[in-house]
Amino acid sequence: MHVHLPVLPILVPLLFAAVMLLSERRGIVVQRALSAVGLACLLAISIALVAVADEGRITAYLLGDWPARLGIALMVDRLNALMVLTTTLLGAACLLHACGGWDRRAIHFHALFQLQLAGLNGAFLTGDLFNLFVFFEVMLIASYGLLLSGGRGPRMRAGLHYVVFNITASTLFLIALGLLYGLLGTLNMAEMAQRAAQADPANLSLIRAASGILLVVFCAKAALAPLYLWLPNAYARAPAAVAALFAVMTKVGIYAVLRVYTLVFGGLAEGTPAAMLADWAWAWLLPAGAVTLVLATLGVLASSSLRMLVAFLVIASAATLFIAFSLGTTDTLAAGLYYLVHSTFVAAALFLIADLVRRQRGGAGDTLDRNGPLRHNALLGLLFATAAVSVSGMPPLSGFIGKTLLLDAVPATSMAWVWTVILLTGLLTVVALARTASQVFWRAQPWPDTTPVPAPPGRAHVAAAVLLLAYGIAMTAWAAPVLAYAEAAARQLQAPADYVEAAHATRPLLREPSP
Protein backbone atom coordinates (compact mmCIF):
# COMPACT_ATOMS: atom_id res chain seq x y z
CA MET A 1 0.00 0.00 0.00
CA HIS A 2 2.87 2.37 0.81
CA VAL A 3 4.25 1.92 -2.72
CA HIS A 4 0.92 2.87 -4.30
CA LEU A 5 0.16 5.73 -1.91
CA PRO A 6 0.73 8.53 -4.53
CA VAL A 7 -2.09 7.32 -6.77
CA LEU A 8 -4.69 6.83 -4.03
CA PRO A 9 -5.70 10.53 -3.66
CA ILE A 10 -6.86 10.32 -7.28
CA LEU A 11 -8.09 6.75 -7.42
CA VAL A 12 -10.22 6.76 -4.24
CA PRO A 13 -12.44 9.75 -5.22
CA LEU A 14 -12.85 8.33 -8.74
CA LEU A 15 -13.99 4.96 -7.38
CA PHE A 16 -16.40 6.55 -4.92
CA ALA A 17 -17.80 8.78 -7.68
CA ALA A 18 -18.51 5.71 -9.81
CA VAL A 19 -20.17 3.91 -6.91
CA MET A 20 -22.32 6.96 -6.16
CA LEU A 21 -23.54 7.23 -9.73
CA LEU A 22 -24.59 3.59 -9.60
CA SER A 23 -26.32 3.94 -6.22
CA GLU A 24 -28.17 7.24 -6.66
CA ARG A 25 -31.57 5.54 -6.63
CA ARG A 26 -30.94 4.32 -3.10
CA GLY A 27 -31.51 7.82 -1.75
CA ILE A 28 -29.65 10.76 -0.34
CA VAL A 29 -28.78 9.03 2.94
CA VAL A 30 -26.72 6.41 1.11
CA GLN A 31 -25.05 9.13 -0.97
CA ARG A 32 -24.09 11.06 2.15
CA ALA A 33 -22.77 7.94 3.86
CA LEU A 34 -20.61 7.07 0.85
CA SER A 35 -19.31 10.64 0.66
CA ALA A 36 -18.40 10.59 4.34
CA VAL A 37 -16.57 7.28 4.00
CA GLY A 38 -14.76 8.52 0.89
CA LEU A 39 -13.62 11.72 2.64
CA ALA A 40 -12.48 9.76 5.69
CA CYS A 41 -10.39 7.46 3.49
CA LEU A 42 -8.99 10.42 1.57
CA LEU A 43 -8.09 12.22 4.80
CA ALA A 44 -6.16 9.20 6.06
CA ILE A 45 -4.34 8.93 2.72
CA SER A 46 -3.52 12.65 2.70
CA ILE A 47 -2.05 12.52 6.21
CA ALA A 48 0.03 9.49 5.24
CA LEU A 49 1.20 11.31 2.09
CA VAL A 50 2.37 14.30 4.14
CA ALA A 51 4.16 11.98 6.58
CA VAL A 52 6.02 10.29 3.71
CA ALA A 53 6.87 13.61 2.03
CA ASP A 54 8.10 15.07 5.32
CA GLU A 55 10.87 12.46 5.37
CA GLY A 56 12.50 14.63 2.72
CA ARG A 57 12.51 12.36 -0.29
CA ILE A 58 10.69 12.95 -3.56
CA THR A 59 8.71 9.95 -4.77
CA ALA A 60 8.04 9.11 -8.42
CA TYR A 61 5.14 6.81 -9.33
CA LEU A 62 4.35 5.49 -12.81
CA LEU A 63 0.85 4.20 -13.45
CA GLY A 64 1.07 0.75 -15.01
CA ASP A 65 4.88 1.10 -15.04
CA TRP A 66 4.57 2.78 -18.43
CA PRO A 67 7.35 5.18 -19.46
CA ALA A 68 6.50 8.80 -18.77
CA ARG A 69 6.10 9.58 -22.47
CA LEU A 70 3.34 7.00 -22.74
CA GLY A 71 1.75 6.98 -19.28
CA ILE A 72 0.97 9.14 -16.29
CA ALA A 73 3.86 10.04 -14.00
CA LEU A 74 2.99 11.18 -10.49
CA MET A 75 5.51 12.96 -8.27
CA VAL A 76 5.16 13.51 -4.52
CA ASP A 77 7.12 16.11 -2.58
CA ARG A 78 6.35 18.32 0.41
CA LEU A 79 4.57 20.97 -1.65
CA ASN A 80 1.98 18.84 -3.43
CA ALA A 81 1.42 16.65 -0.36
CA LEU A 82 0.53 19.85 1.53
CA MET A 83 -1.84 20.89 -1.25
CA VAL A 84 -3.60 17.50 -1.23
CA LEU A 85 -4.08 17.66 2.55
CA THR A 86 -5.38 21.24 2.34
CA THR A 87 -7.87 20.23 -0.36
CA THR A 88 -9.08 17.26 1.67
CA LEU A 89 -9.57 19.28 4.87
CA LEU A 90 -11.43 21.92 2.88
CA GLY A 91 -13.55 19.26 1.17
CA ALA A 92 -14.62 17.80 4.53
CA ALA A 93 -16.06 21.14 5.67
CA CYS A 94 -17.74 21.81 2.30
CA LEU A 95 -19.33 18.37 2.29
CA LEU A 96 -20.61 18.88 5.83
CA HIS A 97 -22.27 22.14 4.79
CA ALA A 98 -23.80 20.62 1.65
CA CYS A 99 -25.24 17.72 3.66
CA GLY A 100 -27.25 20.29 5.61
CA GLY A 101 -29.79 20.16 2.80
CA TRP A 102 -28.43 21.74 -0.38
CA ASP A 103 -27.25 18.40 -1.79
CA ARG A 104 -30.91 17.38 -2.21
CA ARG A 105 -31.42 20.09 -4.83
CA ALA A 106 -28.28 19.41 -6.89
CA ILE A 107 -28.31 16.61 -9.42
CA HIS A 108 -25.39 14.17 -8.98
CA PHE A 109 -23.85 16.46 -6.34
CA HIS A 110 -21.94 13.81 -4.43
CA ALA A 111 -20.48 12.15 -7.53
CA LEU A 112 -19.44 15.51 -8.98
CA PHE A 113 -17.93 16.48 -5.62
CA GLN A 114 -15.72 13.39 -5.65
CA LEU A 115 -14.71 14.03 -9.27
CA GLN A 116 -13.77 17.58 -8.30
CA LEU A 117 -11.50 16.25 -5.56
CA ALA A 118 -9.93 13.76 -7.97
CA GLY A 119 -9.22 16.52 -10.48
CA LEU A 120 -7.71 18.80 -7.84
CA ASN A 121 -5.50 16.08 -6.39
CA GLY A 122 -4.41 14.94 -9.84
CA ALA A 123 -3.43 18.50 -10.81
CA PHE A 124 -1.26 18.75 -7.70
CA LEU A 125 0.37 15.32 -8.03
CA THR A 126 1.03 14.98 -11.76
CA GLY A 127 4.56 15.26 -13.08
CA ASP A 128 3.52 15.78 -16.68
CA LEU A 129 2.17 18.93 -18.30
CA PHE A 130 -0.27 17.12 -20.58
CA ASN A 131 -1.74 15.26 -17.64
CA LEU A 132 -1.92 18.56 -15.79
CA PHE A 133 -4.20 19.68 -18.63
CA VAL A 134 -6.24 16.46 -18.27
CA PHE A 135 -6.72 16.91 -14.54
CA PHE A 136 -7.53 20.59 -15.06
CA GLU A 137 -10.35 19.48 -17.34
CA VAL A 138 -11.62 16.85 -14.87
CA MET A 139 -11.66 19.52 -12.18
CA LEU A 140 -13.35 22.08 -14.43
CA ILE A 141 -16.01 19.75 -15.84
CA ALA A 142 -17.00 18.76 -12.30
CA SER A 143 -17.05 22.44 -11.30
CA TYR A 144 -19.38 23.25 -14.21
CA GLY A 145 -21.88 20.71 -12.92
CA LEU A 146 -21.58 21.89 -9.31
CA LEU A 147 -21.97 25.55 -10.23
CA LEU A 148 -24.86 25.18 -12.67
CA SER A 149 -26.82 22.42 -10.94
CA GLY A 150 -30.18 23.71 -9.78
CA GLY A 151 -29.33 27.23 -10.93
CA ARG A 152 -31.33 29.74 -12.92
CA GLY A 153 -31.25 33.41 -13.83
CA PRO A 154 -28.16 35.25 -12.59
CA ARG A 155 -26.35 32.06 -11.57
CA MET A 156 -26.83 30.53 -15.01
CA ARG A 157 -25.45 33.67 -16.67
CA ALA A 158 -22.45 33.78 -14.35
CA GLY A 159 -21.93 30.06 -14.82
CA LEU A 160 -21.98 30.30 -18.60
CA HIS A 161 -19.39 33.11 -18.48
CA TYR A 162 -17.28 30.88 -16.23
CA VAL A 163 -17.57 27.97 -18.69
CA VAL A 164 -16.72 30.05 -21.76
CA PHE A 165 -13.74 31.69 -20.09
CA ASN A 166 -12.29 28.37 -18.95
CA ILE A 167 -12.84 26.71 -22.31
CA THR A 168 -10.90 29.55 -23.94
CA ALA A 169 -8.10 29.16 -21.40
CA SER A 170 -8.03 25.40 -22.02
CA THR A 171 -7.67 26.00 -25.76
CA LEU A 172 -4.65 28.22 -25.12
CA PHE A 173 -3.29 25.52 -22.81
CA LEU A 174 -3.41 22.98 -25.64
CA ILE A 175 -1.71 25.38 -28.03
CA ALA A 176 1.12 25.95 -25.54
CA LEU A 177 1.51 22.21 -24.98
CA GLY A 178 1.73 21.56 -28.71
CA LEU A 179 4.44 24.19 -29.13
CA LEU A 180 6.45 22.94 -26.17
CA TYR A 181 6.23 19.31 -27.27
CA GLY A 182 7.40 20.26 -30.75
CA LEU A 183 10.35 22.23 -29.33
CA LEU A 184 11.41 19.98 -26.45
CA GLY A 185 10.11 16.56 -27.51
CA THR A 186 8.50 15.79 -24.17
CA LEU A 187 5.92 17.10 -21.70
CA ASN A 188 7.26 15.31 -18.64
CA MET A 189 8.34 18.16 -16.38
CA ALA A 190 11.58 16.53 -15.21
CA GLU A 191 12.67 15.92 -18.79
CA MET A 192 11.54 19.37 -19.86
CA ALA A 193 13.73 20.91 -17.17
CA GLN A 194 16.78 19.14 -18.60
CA ARG A 195 15.98 19.91 -22.22
CA ALA A 196 15.16 23.57 -21.54
CA ALA A 197 18.55 23.92 -19.83
CA GLN A 198 20.24 22.46 -22.93
CA ALA A 199 18.01 24.12 -25.52
CA ASP A 200 19.42 25.46 -28.73
CA PRO A 201 19.69 29.26 -28.37
CA ALA A 202 17.95 29.56 -31.73
CA ASN A 203 14.81 28.00 -30.20
CA LEU A 204 14.75 30.08 -27.02
CA SER A 205 12.44 32.74 -28.46
CA LEU A 206 9.86 30.12 -29.43
CA ILE A 207 10.19 28.36 -26.07
CA ARG A 208 9.70 31.69 -24.32
CA ALA A 209 6.60 32.40 -26.44
CA ALA A 210 5.13 29.00 -25.56
CA SER A 211 5.97 29.48 -21.88
CA GLY A 212 4.31 32.91 -22.07
CA ILE A 213 1.07 31.38 -23.38
CA LEU A 214 1.25 28.84 -20.56
CA LEU A 215 1.76 31.64 -18.04
CA VAL A 216 -1.35 33.43 -19.33
CA VAL A 217 -3.37 30.24 -18.84
CA PHE A 218 -2.16 29.71 -15.27
CA CYS A 219 -2.67 33.37 -14.36
CA ALA A 220 -6.21 33.18 -15.77
CA LYS A 221 -6.92 30.21 -13.49
CA ALA A 222 -5.38 32.10 -10.57
CA ALA A 223 -7.38 35.30 -11.30
CA LEU A 224 -4.45 37.66 -11.78
CA ALA A 225 -5.19 41.09 -13.28
CA PRO A 226 -6.48 41.68 -15.87
CA LEU A 227 -7.70 38.07 -16.10
CA TYR A 228 -9.75 38.08 -12.88
CA LEU A 229 -13.00 39.63 -14.12
CA TRP A 230 -14.68 36.23 -14.46
CA LEU A 231 -14.24 35.28 -10.80
CA PRO A 232 -16.27 37.69 -8.60
CA ASN A 233 -19.67 37.10 -10.17
CA ALA A 234 -19.17 33.34 -10.62
CA TYR A 235 -18.06 32.79 -7.02
CA ALA A 236 -20.67 35.15 -5.59
CA ARG A 237 -23.47 33.33 -7.43
CA ALA A 238 -22.28 29.80 -6.63
CA PRO A 239 -23.98 27.81 -3.84
CA ALA A 240 -22.14 28.27 -0.56
CA ALA A 241 -20.59 24.80 -0.35
CA VAL A 242 -19.43 25.03 -3.97
CA ALA A 243 -18.02 28.56 -3.57
CA ALA A 244 -16.13 27.40 -0.47
CA LEU A 245 -14.60 24.50 -2.42
CA PHE A 246 -13.74 26.87 -5.26
CA ALA A 247 -11.53 28.80 -2.80
CA VAL A 248 -8.79 26.27 -3.55
CA MET A 249 -9.18 26.42 -7.34
CA THR A 250 -7.31 29.71 -7.74
CA LYS A 251 -4.52 28.05 -5.75
CA VAL A 252 -4.24 25.40 -8.48
CA GLY A 253 -3.20 28.10 -10.94
CA ILE A 254 -0.73 29.53 -8.43
CA TYR A 255 0.66 26.05 -7.75
CA ALA A 256 1.09 25.46 -11.49
CA VAL A 257 3.03 28.73 -11.89
CA LEU A 258 5.19 27.89 -8.90
CA ARG A 259 5.92 24.35 -10.06
CA VAL A 260 6.50 25.01 -13.75
CA TYR A 261 8.51 28.22 -13.42
CA THR A 262 10.80 26.92 -10.69
CA LEU A 263 11.36 23.51 -12.30
CA VAL A 264 10.82 23.52 -16.05
CA PHE A 265 11.85 27.03 -17.12
CA GLY A 266 15.09 28.19 -15.61
CA GLY A 267 15.27 25.69 -12.76
CA LEU A 268 18.35 23.91 -14.14
CA ALA A 269 19.41 26.64 -16.51
CA GLU A 270 21.44 28.95 -14.27
CA GLY A 271 24.36 30.44 -16.16
CA THR A 272 22.85 29.63 -19.55
CA PRO A 273 20.70 31.67 -21.95
CA ALA A 274 17.72 29.51 -20.95
CA ALA A 275 17.79 31.06 -17.46
CA MET A 276 15.89 34.03 -18.89
CA LEU A 277 12.85 31.80 -19.48
CA ALA A 278 11.87 32.01 -15.80
CA ASP A 279 13.42 35.36 -14.95
CA TRP A 280 11.14 37.35 -17.24
CA ALA A 281 8.07 35.57 -15.87
CA TRP A 282 8.83 36.34 -12.22
CA ALA A 283 9.83 39.90 -13.09
CA TRP A 284 6.41 40.43 -14.67
CA LEU A 285 4.41 38.61 -11.99
CA LEU A 286 5.70 40.76 -9.12
CA PRO A 287 4.17 44.08 -10.26
CA ALA A 288 1.13 42.26 -11.66
CA GLY A 289 0.51 40.78 -8.21
CA ALA A 290 0.77 44.22 -6.61
CA VAL A 291 -1.66 45.76 -9.12
CA THR A 292 -4.10 42.87 -8.61
CA LEU A 293 -3.91 43.29 -4.83
CA VAL A 294 -4.79 46.99 -5.10
CA LEU A 295 -7.66 46.39 -7.55
CA ALA A 296 -9.05 43.50 -5.49
CA THR A 297 -8.98 45.65 -2.34
CA LEU A 298 -10.88 48.39 -4.14
CA GLY A 299 -13.36 45.69 -5.16
CA VAL A 300 -13.74 44.71 -1.50
CA LEU A 301 -14.48 48.34 -0.62
CA ALA A 302 -16.99 48.71 -3.44
CA SER A 303 -18.81 45.39 -2.95
CA SER A 304 -22.57 45.62 -2.60
CA SER A 305 -23.05 42.13 -1.17
CA LEU A 306 -21.24 39.99 1.37
CA ARG A 307 -20.59 37.18 -1.09
CA MET A 308 -19.12 39.59 -3.64
CA LEU A 309 -16.85 40.99 -0.92
CA VAL A 310 -15.56 37.48 -0.15
CA ALA A 311 -14.97 36.81 -3.86
CA PHE A 312 -12.72 39.88 -4.07
CA LEU A 313 -10.92 38.72 -0.92
CA VAL A 314 -10.11 35.48 -2.78
CA ILE A 315 -8.50 37.54 -5.55
CA ALA A 316 -6.60 39.60 -2.99
CA SER A 317 -5.20 36.46 -1.36
CA ALA A 318 -4.06 35.12 -4.74
CA ALA A 319 -2.35 38.46 -5.48
CA THR A 320 -0.54 38.36 -2.12
CA LEU A 321 0.73 34.89 -2.97
CA PHE A 322 2.04 36.06 -6.34
CA ILE A 323 3.99 38.80 -4.56
CA ALA A 324 5.43 36.34 -2.03
CA PHE A 325 6.45 33.75 -4.61
CA SER A 326 7.82 36.28 -7.10
CA LEU A 327 10.26 37.63 -4.51
CA GLY A 328 11.91 34.23 -4.79
CA THR A 329 13.70 33.77 -1.45
CA THR A 330 13.32 30.73 0.78
CA ASP A 331 11.69 32.80 3.51
CA THR A 332 9.15 34.49 1.22
CA LEU A 333 8.28 31.13 -0.33
CA ALA A 334 7.76 29.61 3.12
CA ALA A 335 5.64 32.55 4.26
CA GLY A 336 3.64 32.29 1.04
CA LEU A 337 2.95 28.58 1.55
CA TYR A 338 1.77 29.23 5.11
CA TYR A 339 -0.42 32.07 3.86
CA LEU A 340 -1.77 29.90 1.02
CA VAL A 341 -3.21 27.34 3.41
CA HIS A 342 -4.56 30.01 5.78
CA SER A 343 -6.22 32.04 3.02
CA THR A 344 -7.90 28.97 1.53
CA PHE A 345 -9.58 28.05 4.82
CA VAL A 346 -10.62 31.56 5.86
CA ALA A 347 -12.06 32.48 2.44
CA ALA A 348 -14.08 29.26 2.42
CA ALA A 349 -15.32 30.00 5.95
CA LEU A 350 -16.45 33.47 4.88
CA PHE A 351 -18.47 32.02 1.99
CA LEU A 352 -20.28 29.72 4.43
CA ILE A 353 -20.82 32.54 6.94
CA ALA A 354 -22.20 34.77 4.17
CA ASP A 355 -24.72 32.05 3.36
CA LEU A 356 -25.75 31.80 7.02
CA VAL A 357 -26.25 35.58 7.16
CA ARG A 358 -28.26 35.56 3.94
CA ARG A 359 -30.60 32.91 5.33
CA GLN A 360 -31.12 34.77 8.64
CA ARG A 361 -31.59 38.28 7.21
CA GLY A 362 -34.92 37.96 5.46
CA GLY A 363 -35.49 40.03 2.34
CA ALA A 364 -32.24 41.98 2.86
CA GLY A 365 -30.23 38.85 2.06
CA ASP A 366 -26.50 39.55 2.09
CA THR A 367 -26.73 43.03 0.56
CA LEU A 368 -24.59 45.76 2.12
CA ASP A 369 -26.36 48.83 0.75
CA ARG A 370 -29.37 48.69 3.08
CA ASN A 371 -30.14 47.72 6.66
CA GLY A 372 -32.22 44.69 7.49
CA PRO A 373 -33.24 42.46 10.38
CA LEU A 374 -30.98 39.60 11.47
CA ARG A 375 -31.77 36.57 13.58
CA HIS A 376 -29.06 34.98 15.77
CA ASN A 377 -26.82 37.98 15.25
CA ALA A 378 -24.62 37.12 18.28
CA LEU A 379 -23.59 33.73 16.87
CA LEU A 380 -23.21 34.96 13.30
CA GLY A 381 -21.40 38.10 14.44
CA LEU A 382 -18.88 36.03 16.41
CA LEU A 383 -18.20 33.79 13.41
CA PHE A 384 -17.82 36.78 11.09
CA ALA A 385 -15.57 38.66 13.52
CA THR A 386 -13.23 35.67 13.87
CA ALA A 387 -12.98 35.27 10.10
CA ALA A 388 -12.58 39.01 9.55
CA VAL A 389 -9.70 39.28 12.04
CA SER A 390 -7.96 36.38 10.34
CA VAL A 391 -8.46 37.43 6.71
CA SER A 392 -7.42 41.04 7.34
CA GLY A 393 -4.14 40.02 8.96
CA MET A 394 -4.88 41.40 12.43
CA PRO A 395 -3.37 39.68 15.49
CA PRO A 396 -3.43 37.09 16.87
CA LEU A 397 -4.72 34.65 14.23
CA SER A 398 -3.01 32.91 11.31
CA GLY A 399 -3.50 35.78 8.86
CA PHE A 400 -1.38 38.00 11.09
CA ILE A 401 1.34 35.35 11.30
CA GLY A 402 1.36 34.82 7.53
CA LYS A 403 1.58 38.51 6.65
CA THR A 404 4.14 39.22 9.37
CA LEU A 405 6.36 36.41 8.11
CA LEU A 406 6.06 37.72 4.57
CA LEU A 407 6.85 41.32 5.48
CA ASP A 408 9.80 40.22 7.59
CA ALA A 409 11.19 38.19 4.68
CA VAL A 410 10.91 40.87 1.98
CA PRO A 411 14.38 41.69 0.56
CA ALA A 412 15.68 45.16 1.32
CA THR A 413 15.60 46.16 -2.35
CA SER A 414 11.81 45.63 -2.50
CA MET A 415 10.91 46.47 1.09
CA ALA A 416 9.61 50.04 0.60
CA TRP A 417 6.97 49.38 -2.04
CA VAL A 418 5.99 45.84 -0.94
CA TRP A 419 5.42 46.97 2.64
CA THR A 420 3.45 49.97 1.40
CA VAL A 421 1.18 47.90 -0.84
CA ILE A 422 0.52 45.12 1.67
CA LEU A 423 0.01 47.39 4.69
CA LEU A 424 -2.17 49.89 2.81
CA THR A 425 -4.39 47.22 1.28
CA GLY A 426 -4.57 45.50 4.67
CA LEU A 427 -5.78 48.73 6.27
CA LEU A 428 -8.42 49.24 3.56
CA THR A 429 -9.56 45.63 4.04
CA VAL A 430 -10.01 46.27 7.76
CA VAL A 431 -12.10 49.37 6.93
CA ALA A 432 -14.27 47.37 4.50
CA LEU A 433 -14.82 44.53 6.96
CA ALA A 434 -15.60 46.96 9.81
CA ARG A 435 -18.16 48.72 7.60
CA THR A 436 -19.68 45.36 6.72
CA ALA A 437 -19.91 44.29 10.37
CA SER A 438 -21.53 47.60 11.29
CA GLN A 439 -24.05 47.39 8.46
CA VAL A 440 -25.04 43.76 8.89
CA PHE A 441 -24.69 43.09 12.62
CA TRP A 442 -24.51 46.33 14.61
CA ARG A 443 -27.32 48.12 12.74
CA ALA A 444 -29.55 45.04 12.47
CA GLN A 445 -33.20 45.98 12.95
CA PRO A 446 -35.69 44.10 15.13
CA TRP A 447 -37.45 41.31 13.32
CA PRO A 448 -40.87 42.52 12.06
CA ASP A 449 -43.83 40.83 13.72
CA THR A 450 -45.57 40.51 10.35
CA THR A 451 -42.67 38.64 8.71
CA PRO A 452 -42.25 34.87 9.10
CA VAL A 453 -39.25 34.04 11.27
CA PRO A 454 -36.62 31.98 9.39
CA ALA A 455 -35.59 28.60 10.68
CA PRO A 456 -32.51 28.72 12.92
CA PRO A 457 -29.17 27.94 11.28
CA GLY A 458 -28.72 24.24 10.68
CA ARG A 459 -26.20 22.48 12.86
CA ALA A 460 -24.33 21.18 9.83
CA HIS A 461 -24.07 24.69 8.36
CA VAL A 462 -22.71 26.19 11.58
CA ALA A 463 -20.40 23.23 12.21
CA ALA A 464 -18.86 23.55 8.74
CA ALA A 465 -18.02 27.22 9.26
CA VAL A 466 -16.67 26.53 12.76
CA LEU A 467 -14.53 23.68 11.40
CA LEU A 468 -12.89 25.95 8.82
CA LEU A 469 -12.22 28.62 11.42
CA ALA A 470 -10.82 25.93 13.71
CA TYR A 471 -8.29 25.02 11.02
CA GLY A 472 -7.01 28.59 11.11
CA ILE A 473 -6.89 28.61 14.91
CA ALA A 474 -4.94 25.34 14.82
CA MET A 475 -2.48 26.93 12.36
CA THR A 476 -2.03 29.70 14.93
CA ALA A 477 -1.56 27.38 17.90
CA TRP A 478 0.83 25.08 16.02
CA ALA A 479 2.40 27.72 13.79
CA ALA A 480 5.98 26.52 14.48
CA PRO A 481 5.63 22.98 13.02
CA VAL A 482 3.49 24.23 10.13
CA LEU A 483 6.07 26.87 9.28
CA ALA A 484 8.92 24.37 9.64
CA TYR A 485 7.18 22.16 7.08
CA ALA A 486 6.62 25.17 4.79
CA GLU A 487 10.30 26.15 5.03
CA ALA A 488 11.38 22.61 4.16
CA ALA A 489 8.95 22.63 1.20
CA ALA A 490 10.38 25.97 0.04
CA ARG A 491 13.95 24.64 0.16
CA GLN A 492 12.88 21.55 -1.74
CA LEU A 493 11.17 23.68 -4.35
CA GLN A 494 14.37 25.66 -4.85
CA ALA A 495 16.34 22.48 -5.54
CA PRO A 496 14.90 21.32 -8.88
CA ALA A 497 17.88 19.02 -9.44
CA ASP A 498 16.57 16.82 -6.60
CA TYR A 499 13.22 16.55 -8.40
CA VAL A 500 14.91 15.50 -11.64
CA GLU A 501 17.15 13.05 -9.79
CA ALA A 502 14.12 11.46 -8.14
CA ALA A 503 12.53 11.10 -11.57
CA HIS A 504 15.70 9.42 -12.89
CA ALA A 505 15.75 7.05 -9.94
CA THR A 506 12.57 5.40 -11.26
CA ARG A 507 13.86 3.15 -14.03
CA PRO A 508 11.40 3.67 -16.89
CA LEU A 509 10.68 7.35 -16.25
CA LEU A 510 13.25 8.99 -18.50
CA ARG A 511 14.02 6.04 -20.74
CA GLU A 512 14.93 7.07 -24.25
CA PRO A 513 12.31 6.16 -26.88
CA SER A 514 13.01 3.26 -29.19
CA PRO A 515 14.33 4.22 -32.65
From TrEMBL:
- Which keywords does the record carry? Cell membrane, Membrane, Transmembrane, Transmembrane helix
Enumerate the subcellular locations listed in this protein's record, separating them with semicolons.
Cell membrane; Membrane
List GO terms (cellular component aspect): plasma membrane
**Which residues does UniProt assign to the signal peptide?**
none
InterPro entries under this entry?
CPA3_Na-H_Antiporter_D (IPR050586), NADH_UbQ_OxRdtase (IPR003918), ND/Mrp_TM (IPR001750)
Its predominant location is membrane
Q: Where is the NADH:quinone oxidoreductase/Mrp antiporter transmembrane domain?
A: 127-429
Molecular function, one GO term: NADH dehydrogenase (ubiquinone) activity
Q: Where are the transmembrane segments?
A: 6-22, 34-53, 79-99, 106-124, 130-148, 160-184, 204-231, 238-261, 281-302, 309-330, 336-357, 378-396, 416-434, 462-486
Single GO BP term: ATP synthesis coupled electron transport
* Membrane topology of this protein: Multi-pass membrane protein
Q: Which NCBIfam families match?
A: PRK12666.1
User: What does the similarity note say?
Assistant: Belongs to the CPA3 antiporters (TC 2.A.63) subunit D family.
Stated name of the protein: Monovalent cation/H+ antiporter subunit D
Naturally occurring in which organism (per UniProt): Marilutibacter spongiae
